[in-house]
Design goal:
118 residues
């Protein structure tokens, strides 16, 4: 399971990495997605971003930058996350807490159709 912490560039700092890191207790991979990422960073912004990448890398959090969040072609993976050994019960509980029942039912039905075809 993968989770994504989404932040706008203007309000992103190293705390966003720790918010994404908190997801690793209930997911296998955690990402920080930074939307509205500028095409050109100032020197100060570049230094802050490199610091953010350092903290993310040390903690196994993936980082994706998205200048245009609506256009997947602009998304760039800056770091890939490392896999965590999250407890499967915690992952199941996250799905129960976050995914509406109707969506879960549709997902179960789709999985049953796939299994039957195999």
């Amino acid at each position: 399971m993968r989770t994504i912490e989404v932040k706008r560039f203007e309000v992103t700092d190293v705390l966003a990495v720790y918010e994404a890191l908190s997801h690793k207790a209930r997911s296998h991979y955690a990402y920080l997605l930074i939307v509205g990422f500028p095409a050109q960073l100032t020197e100060d912004q570049q230094a802050d971003f490199e610091n953010l990448l350092g903290v993310a890398g040390k903690n196994g959090v993936g980082v994706i930058t998205a200048p245009d969040s609506g256009d997947w072609r602009t998304w760039e993976f800056q770091l890939y996350p490392t896999r965590s050994d999250a407890d499967h019960q915690a992952i199941n509980q996250l799905l129960l807490d976050q995914v509406p029942p109707g969506v879960r039912d549709d997902f179960r039905a789709a999985i049953r159709r796939i299994v039957v075809q195999i």
